Give the backbone structure.
Amino acid sequence: MACNISLAGDLLVAAGLVNKISCGTINLEVFGVPWATKKAIENGLLSFCEHDHSSILARLSATRLGLPFVPLPDVGKNDWSAALLSGLPEEFALVENRTLGHRNVIVALPLRPDICILHVPAADPQGNLYSAGPQCFDEELVLASKSVLATCEVVAPAEQCLNEYGRPLIQSLFIDEVVEVKGGAYPSCVPGFYSVAGPAIQQYNIAVHKGVKFEDCLSLLMRKTRVLGSGG
């Protein structure tokens, strides 16, 4: 389950470790389609349930709030919800809403991931996590998951983290383990630490498209073309 399968999910698919995905989009942004995922779906090796981002958030919120479901807006008023009504996946259900003229409403059922793994720029010795910029569904995902493993570029004193990032993104109360892993987001980027390794991602995706075996594709991806941690 993810907003975007992106590179992390495509690697799991390429390794043969995934048989079902639920997500809002499948892409590598400027690097195009993730070919391992695309091929697996086309060849019937991978089942796919399409969400929009609000339905993913609704499922996580239902778990976090202890609710049996969270209703989705605009039933039948857009192509996605109309498609859901034609063949409702197991992640959703129809509930009659008597306040809207007994109209059926699509509701999102709770999602409780077994584990959440996330990477952040910094953590303090107490296990609080720090990051800057937009965070998407990080907080909802952490609070809905059974276990949370966080990796970070650096463990630094709390005062230093507060000065650089402001208040914690996630408090230590909700984190099971924090591990310092420099370069843990590579070949993606962590602003202030390293930039995205565009050539490596492109080479990987081209190799997958050509049918190169997974081990060799992974080797292409992990050829680090710059020194990690030397600044953005």
About this structure: The chain is about 30% helix and 20% strand. The mean pLDDT is 86.
